[in-house]
Every structure is written in structure tokens, then in C-alpha cells.
Amino acid sequence: MTSNETVGNTRWHIKNVRILDPFTATDAMGDVFIVDGRFAAGPVQGMTVIEGQGLWAVPRMTDIHVHFREPGQEHKEDLLSGSRAAAAGGFTVVAAMPNTSPVIDSAALVAWERNRAREIGLVELWPMGAVTKGSAGQELAELGLMEEAGAMGFSDDGKPVANARMMRSALSYVSMLGHPIVQHAEDLSLSEGTVMHEGAISHQLGLSGAPAAAESVMVWRDVELSILTSGPLHVAHVTAIGSLEALEYAARRGAPVTAEATPHHLLLTDSAVSDWNSSPISKVNPPLRPTTHRAALRQAVASGLVSVIASDHAPHHMDEKAAPFPQAPYGISGLETSVGAVFTALLHSGLMDPLTLLARMTVGPHRALRAHYPGLVQGAAADLTLIDPHASWIVDSRAFYSQGHNTPMDGMQLKGRAVGTMLRGVWTMREGQVLA
Amino acid sequence: MRDFIKLEGMDSSDLKALISLAESLSEILSRPIKKVPTLRGRAIANVFFEASTRTRNSFELAGKYMSADVINFQASGSSVEKGETLWDTARNLTAMGIDAVVIRHQVSGIPGLLADLLDVPVINAGDGMHEHPTQGLLDLVAAKARKGRLEGLKVAIVGDVLHSRVARSDLWGFQTMGAEVTLVGPPNLLPAELGVAMTSNLEEGIKGCDVIQVLRLQHERQKGGSIPSVREYRALFGITGPRLAQWAPDACVMHPGPQNRGVEIDSDVLDGPQSAVLDQVRYGVAVRMAVLYRLLGGTHDI
Fold first, then answer.
1. Between the CA of residue B212 and those of B169, B188, B256, what are the distances in Å?
2. The complex's ipTM?
3. Alpha helix locations (H) across A211-349?
């Protein structure tokens, strides 16, 4: 297929593809038809045929935790480069965290961000609004007005809502709205001054470590507050065994609590810090954990206790990441390795079946943020990703569409890759090439 | 061996060779004219991002005793204060023809990363809480001089092990040489997950020991909430004359310095017959000569 065909056509027939649609619990061989931006029931005149043999067709791949850095930190990433990274990684929907400069804490900023992403047109962007004004933890931001302007959730991500009374208030308040509080759970008094997970590796490398409890004590607190208020809570990037226990407790109590895991916490361990010779390339918050925590996290994703996989895509400028460990910023550029990392960790390891795994990247994120999408059915917006589940490839961060080349997966061999991304019937990526 | 970054993971044969080399080079220090031409024409930069007296002087003398040209770079008052990164500082030095970089930095892991970046040998003179490998090596040489061997020795490292780079280098060095190491200190100042024998009972930790390495107690540990008071620390972990006489009368007592007399170690111990602290300092120069010789490939006779 030539790029001319890609750009000009609006009618597509994808043949002999394995349709994996977690929204309708479908796993079947078949054909997919797209006419003028929507899925169609059958072939019509003028369709361009794509051979789908060996590929999977997955609707609405969604990543509800990305940092696109605009406004204010465009040297790290902007809405264009972030959108391109999302398309390259196989995602049609992303939720962008509000810890930009200024913080997205007003309806005007929410509307601006959503409209700017629509102009770019490579990905459906769900804005997240701040929980507190300026994410300063002091006063609630205008959550209701932000939601009217399109906010799909609220988070002070990058830091926690530290004060328990403020968190209680926020959870209680959003119980009247449609979207949850997304908490970056971290007890700052336990983690202050630390740069990695506290354990055998930190003790060997002489790097200051935070215990897993720095995360889990706050997850326990927040679960209690969700029970108290009936407020919907989504726990960002859980990693610790204690946090998973808190989620089980929340489920037993019927609390409206969901949680996500990142590809890097599912794939890597804290030995990445020593493998990278104590370079801050592997510095991320929460930190990479040892295999005991990783094994528990994988099980929790498999069981559905953790119902969302989200990348926490955190691009940084290489000069910033080259600073000594304590000064270097936290974060991994993750959109373009997400599918490969997740498939390698959970699918090819035999831990999960394809449909359940893909639910964590489609229907799970929709439910967590209380969004609705019918699935790969006639009339639905044609948001579709073609995945080659067996493609083996070596991560080369220099080839990223993201401006952030910071990933400790650089040079790793991963298995599984998006080879086509379509947003509302228009290809945004084919064969690794972003089409805008 | 191209760089000297850590004792962890080092082959015992490499370690043994460095110890023997240091032992033979130590003889130079007692010559009336302490100058050999071994490293004539080679230039060494001491790059210190953190205060140091003993280690910097020791490296400088080690280079000079072997006829190398040595320059001392200190971060304060330098281009670093104008915002230059340490990577650029180091690249600039090597562009000036420096043959080896000795670096001390407050951040763990920096010397290892610098070694990846530079084409010349990098020697770690202490990085954060990670390692201080020449200190570890000199502790091995000093202990061996006292005890005649390293294999099978019972070694106790006493104090704030968690924050100590010396303790880590000692631990790996003594273990590699076949000694049995116990870490002794308050539980919140021990690296609990390192998988090494540990105790918070001083008597249990040092009883019958051959070597006791006493670590400096940083006074900021009290402010940071790690210990209640210096007085209580001394009461529980101080190495005093009576304790030493009762529990470890044959032990060689070492301290990497600088010492807090009357806190972690008493003067009667430090200045007494079991103390090896000045041997440590003396061997410190020999050990650094050995490392420089090994990495810079000295060609002249010693």
C-alpha cells in the first residue's frame, strides 16, 4: 500500500484478521470494515483491502497516564510530539496529566488542551484536571467546571494529595461528579531524599532508597477515605505488595477503587539501576521494585485486581536526565514501548491470554475513568490498532517520535508491536511511520 | 583492569596482586629520597567535588612519589560554580592531556559513569554511600600487616554502615579475601537487605574479633532522627578500652578517620597498642601508588 492510498481513502477492508475486542468480549478471526470514520457491517464499494493475516485488530487502545508537558515544558515534549508518540505506540486515546506549567487547573486550560489535541488530530486526548489549585494541595480546583469543559478525571500527579483532610474532601466532592480522583500515592515524609527502591540493590549501590511502604501506606489511607466518602478513586502506578493488599480490601468493602500498573514496573526490576551502572535513566517514581513485588503486580494485573495498564509516559530532555542521580528528574518515556513491554512481560510469559490482557489497555481504562465506548461494532467510531503480537524488535530510543528518549528499555528485545493505528477511520500510523 | 571503581565484584586474584604491589611499594615511603621515576611524564588530576584531606593528600603524594605531575581540582571556586556539568569538567581535563582522573563525588555511581565516558583511567576516591575502594584496599593491607593473613579473619564493622562507603568497600574486600564480616550498629543504620551477618549487640558483634573497623558517627544522624543522642550512641556502640580488653583483646582496631574521640572510639583505644590507624594512613599512600601504577602501566623500574 502506498502512502497516497493511506491518505486519500476513507473506506477500508481489513481481511483475515484476529479481532480481539474486550468491549464485546470477542476473540474471533474475521474481517473489519470501515466506512467514513465508523465501523461498518460489511463491504461496500471502493474499499481498500488490507491483508490482516497474522495481525490482531484491537479497538480503542487507551493509555490513561501520559505527560505531554505542554504548556510550559515544550523542550521535553509537546502535544504534537506526544500525540505522534501515542500513534506510534498504537494508542488512539490518552489521558494527559495536568502537571504542566502552568498546571491545568481551570476549565479554560482543559478546553484549550483538548482543542489543541483535536487540531493535531493524531490521538483523542482526555484532559485530566488538577485536584487542587496549582496542585499545591491547599484549595480544591474547580473540579465541576473542569469536568464540564471535558476533564476526564482529577490528579495532582507528580505528587500526592498529601493532606488527608484535603483528600477526603476531594473524594467526597467528586462523588457528585462523573470522574475519579487519580492519586499518585507516596508518603513524602518516608520517601524524601530517596532515588530508588530500598532493598538489596540500593544497599549495594549506596543509593538512598524508599521503602515500598512509602507507597502502600498512602494507598491504604486513600482506600479508607474512599470507603468513608464513597468517592471514586483511581490509584496511579501501583507497584507494592502492600498496595495490592489495600486494593483487595477495597474490593471486599465494595469501594469504588481502581488501579493501574505501568509497563516498566511489569517488565523491569530494581536491578535495572545496577545494570545501567547507577545512571538516572532508570530513575522513576514509584521506583522499580524487586522481583517479589513485580511478581505480585503481574498476578494482580492477570487477576484484574489491577484493571488498567498505563504507561506513565514521562519524557525528559537528555541534558536533564544526565544530571547526577539525586538531581535528575523521575520518569521513563513509555508510549512507544508499552505494547512490546506488556506483551513480553504478560503475554509471551504465558501469564495472560490476549483478550484479558488487552482488556487492561482498553475497557479497563474506560471503566476506571468512567468513559463509554461500544467496541468494534457497527456505527462505532473506528478507533483501531493493528498489532503484530510476534514481532521481535530491539528498542532504539533514538528512533522515538517522542522528544523524550529516556528509557532503561533501550537496547532490550521486546516481542509485540503495533503496526497500524487508526483514529476515527484515519490511519495515524502504518508500519511504524506516523502519518502526520 | 582499566578503572578502579569498586571492590564489589573484583576478582580475588586482582585484589591479591594489588595488595602485594602495595606491600612492596610501601618500602619507598621509608627511603630517604621518596622519588621513583615510574610515572614520569604522566599527568594525574585529583577532581574533588567533596571535601577531603587525607584521601586527596594521599593521592597527591602517591602520584608525586612516582614522579607524576598532579593537579588538584576543587569544585568550589571553579567552573562548576558557573554551572558546568561534571562531565564537561572531566572532558576538558582530558582534552588538556590528563592521563588519569581521580574523582570524589557526593553522588553514588558518578565515578562508574565517568569511566564509561572517558578514555583515560578513572579512580574512585569515594562516591556517596557507594564505595571508597582505595580505603577498602588500604584497610586490607593494614589488617594483613597486623594479622599476617586475611583468610579466615573475623572482622567487625561497627557504626553507621548504612551511610558508609568505607563499610561497603571493606565488606566486599574482606569477603573476597576470605574473611568473615559482621556488621554492627543500630538497626536503622544497617543495610538490612544486604544479606550479610548483622547484629545490634556490640558484645556479640566484636567478641573474639581479629579486626574491628570503627566508623565515624556523623553528627547529623542525631538531627535526622537516626539516633537519640551522641551519649546514647557511645553507651551502646562506643569502642572503649575496657570493652576492647574484655571482648576483643587480640583485635586490631582501625578507623578510616576523621575520628570523633570519645564518641565512637576512645583515645585510649585510638592511641593504644591495638590501634592500626596510622598504619592505615601510611599504607594509604602505598595503596594509591599501587593503583596508579597498575592503571597507568608504569614502565620504569621502581
1. 15, 20, 11
2. 0.90
3. 213-229, 241-252, 263-267, 271-275, 291-303, 318-321, 338-342
Which residue ranges in chain A fall short of pLDDT 50? 1-4
Q: Is A203 on the interface with B (CB under 8 A)?
A: yes
CA dist A166 → A15, A259, B191, B293 (Å): 53, 20, 36, 62
Testing the interface with B: which of A204, A282, A291, A292 to mutate, by most B Cβ within 10 A?
Answer: A204
Q: Yes or no: say if A393 and A417 are a contact pair by the CB < 8 Å rule.
A: yes
pLDDT band at B74 (very low <50, low <70, confident <90, very high): confident
* pLDDT tens readout for residues A58-73: 999 999 999 999 999 9
Instruction: Name the H helices within B130-178.
Output: 133-147, 165-176
| Amino acid identity for residue A30 in this structure | G
pLDDT digits (tens, 9 = 90+) for A342-357: 999 999 999 999 999 9
Complete domains list, chain B, with CATH:
12-132+281-296 (3.40.50.1370), 133-280 (3.40.50.1370)
CA-CA distance, A353 to A351, in Å (whole number)? 7
Half-sphere exposure of B282 toward its Cβ, with a 13 Å CA cutoff? 14
Cell reading at B215: 566508623
Interchain CB contact of A22 with B (< 8 Å): no
Backbone dihedral region for residue A131 (phi beyond 0: left; psi -120 to 50: alpha; all else: beta): alpha
Q: What is the mean pLDDT of chain B?
A: 94
Split at pLDDT 50, 70, 90, the class of B298 is low
Q: How sure is the predictor about B131, in pLDDT bands with cuts at 50, 70 and 90?
A: very high
Burial A326-339 (b: 16+ CB within 10 A, else e): bebbbbbbbbbbbb
Rounded Cα distance between B280 and B55, Å, is 11
Instruction: Indicate the SS3 state at residue B253.
Output: strand
Q: Report how far residue A313's alpha carbon sits from residue A328's, in angstroms, rounded to the nearest whole number.
A: 16
In angstroms, the Cα distances linking A422 to A38, A60, B285 are 11, 9, 67
State the best of B106, B107, B118 to mutate against chain A, taking most chain A CBs within 10 Å.
B107
Confidence of residue B78 (pLDDT cuts 50, 70, 90): confident
CA distance A182 to A233: 6
At B223 the pLDDT is 78
Active site residues of A: 312
Strand A124-127 and strand A209-210: the pairing is: unpaired
Instruction: Give yes or no for a contact between A334 and A407, defined as CB atoms under 8 angstroms apart.
Output: yes
DSSP letter at A331 equals -
H helix or E strand, kind and range, residue A144: helix A143-148
Chain A residue numbers with beta carbons less than 8 Å from the beta carbon of B86 are 324
With beta carbons less than 8 A apart as the criterion, state whether A61 and A364 touch.
no
CA distances (Å), origin A302, targets A59, A298, A347, A366, A367? 20, 6, 10, 18, 17
Q: What is the pLDDT of residue A7?
A: 56
Residue B202 neighbours by CB distance under 10 Å: 18
A435 touches chain B (CB under 8 A): no
Identify the pLDDT of residue A1.
44
Domains parsed from chain A with CATH numbers: 3-57+379-434 (2.30.40.10), 59-368 (3.20.20.140)
Cell numbers representing residue A277 in the block: 551502572
**Cβ–Cβ contact B104 with A under 8 A:** no
What would the mean pLDDT of B71-83 be, rounded to a whole number?
A: 81
